[in-house]
Amino acid sequence: MTVHDEPPPRIVAPSAPVLHGLLAEYDDAATLLAAARRVREAGLERWDTFTPFPVHGIDQAMGIRSTVLPWLVFAAGVTGCLVGLLLQYWTNAVDYAWIVSGKPFWSLPANVPIAFALAVLSSALTAFFGMLVLNNLPHPWHPIDLEKRFARSTIDRFFLLIEAADPRFDSVQTRAILDETGPVLVDVVHEDTASPFRTPRAVIHGLVVLLVAALVPFGLLAQARATKSRTPPIHLVRDMDAQPTVKAQQAFPRFADGRGARPAVGGTVAREDQLDEHLTRGTIRGAASRVFPPTVAADRANMGAGRRAFDTYCVPCHGYVGNGDGMVAQRAEALAQGIWVPPTNLNQDHLRRQPVGQLFLSVSDGIRTMPAYGPLVPIEDRWRIIMYVRALQRRSSATIADVPAAERKALE
Amino acid sequence: MAKPKQAGPVTPRPGVPNDDVSFDGLAPGVCRIATSAGVALLAVSVGLGATEGDGFRRFLHSYLVAFMYVLSLGLGALWWVTLQHLVGARWSVVVRRIGELLASSMPALAVLSLPIIASVLLESDRLFPWVDPSFMQSQSALAAKRPYLNPGFFVARWAIYFSFWTALGYWLLRCSLAQDATGGTGPLDGARKVSPLAMIGFAITATCASVDYIMTLDPTWYSTVFGVYYFAGCVIAIHSAMVLIVVFLQHRGRLTRSVTPHHFHDLGKMMFAFTVFWAYIAFSQLLLVWYANLPEETVWYRVRSQGSWFFVAVVLVIGHFGLPFFGLLSRHAKRHRASLSFWAGWLLVLHFVDLYFLIMPTFYPGGVSWRVPDLTTWLGLLALFVADVARRARGRNLVPSRDPRLAESLAFENS
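^ Those are the sequences you sent over. The predicted structure of the assembly is below.
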């Protein structure tokens, strides 16, 4: 609660004691409260009270105006919140726009936690440092610390100090005011002429050295950015890019046979191995096949599996009947950002005429902007998907003639 | 920080110096008005419910909202009193009795819950679709919930909840009344000792009750934070209710010296804190559902973010959080009876809107379908609740006047 503006003049050599102020001591809080009221009425400004515990009502008695701190904290909180929102708006919607799980680029719900956290952080920091600054803290020394009796201000005594620097201070009159308030004792406090005011040279030198040392890491960083080096980077965290690797044909003692290159695990086939051109690439002697591989028979089970796989992998974009109106497509269309290539309508004539082998290859390797499904969907399932696509295509151009005679009746 | 002044003079005849802490003079009037208002309003609701010609379906929907509202007051009070014993609170001694009187309303609430239980026992799906076994077989996710969601277990749980709450409320009040007779903190030891376990029991029962009576209206939907959401509403409601009760009593010359701006300040702080807490929980629920975007979870918000329900959602965000947040932020707002009781009333109304928003869209996904019984049932049950509390307050002090910590509470200062 202390308010001390300018530090007292630096006194180098011991000289005549300079008056700092008058210190009154009380032995209970009620008397102090009354005294504070009296001093305030006398119009004094530079004075303070010291108590061993928070005394209720002392603020009013001393006429302490309520602090601006809450407003500072509030402003800081609002600023933090807005900065948080702006930061996310700029990074997500402007600087690096990126669709994440179909959400809008700038979606408020996702921003709330960070805006909230920044609001809390900035208001907490403002409260802490604002409190220090408004109270002129830290304040490591004060002339009354030299008063032996003042130590009891942390135990069981109540003190009131009027500074001589107060414009209305008058050593006789002010003392008379204090005497009226029923103190145990009124004491004169002198400026501190005994303690060395100068910061020791060693401390200053030490600080300079620390400051220079603190610049070194930044210098090193700047140097590292501007130069090239052949030595590998220092890894504090040994993560995946620091794992041991073995080059082809190198020896590697960890394996029993000492070879670095490993033979294929029994019963597996590498992705590139083309055992069966028709099955794996959909071609027969290099030309796209018009028939399904013999291992994928056109039966109800395969068709059902094809439908399940299609519904799982393709429907989000191409839609349930392959018209290109899946949810992802609708969503992207609604966002209208102009960068979206719509999924192809699979029921178009040119695709209907396309050999199954070519459809298979489009799905396996991906085509233009459509990603590859080879790495994701087992090979037979890819064929079954194509089988189902064919069924969908057939469906979209079906006529009444396609309906079996028995059921045609029911429709007509 | 509370500053002990001189020890409060304890008169042999219970009472607080210079203050009127008896409810006797007011009780008959309050009981009469509240009872007749409650009965009249309920009669109107039932009458209007009958004109709908839907076998009281619509009436039961309003009734559920109203019941969850009064239940939240009872539960909030139960929690609050348990908490005061758990932490050994001293500031709150002057208002503790009011909390205790509210918390011992569980038998009345059990009676009020009968229409809801009856709807389940009569195997009617007017409220809960899971009552219908064929519905529960229609989806495998629902079939798995069968062991929990069946009428038998539902009623068993209801019995457990209400016996636990009744016992706890009764016990807390009994300990406190014993203290009125003998003085000293001894009689409160019982309440203090049960409070930790009671708190755990409360957490479990209140969570399950909110799940049972609100969440299972849509048996496929679930949210793990739902119990906390309802609880947050309970806490706001009880503090607001206590503010209004004390302001009413002071208006009638009771408790004028016992309850000071410092106590109002603390009640206001709790209202403020739990307004923020409510928003925090509500938002956590929304954020996780929104992020995960799972169909079985989003459907709940989808209904509530379309058409007129979206408007209600916005009203909640602004009215249940934004405005009271700024309104209650300043200490002056919390220390002045006029402003604090304004916000208390405001929050109590918005609490109703909140429950309406939790419950009604499940029945009326197309949009708000407002009916007069929504209002009259709510006010009717509220009036009956008030009558029950007032009846119990008769012949008892409104302040635990022989609690040794009363002096501290009376002298409590909130800096």
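DSSP finds 14 helices and six strands in chain A. Chain A has a mean pLDDT of 88.

Shout if you want it in another format.
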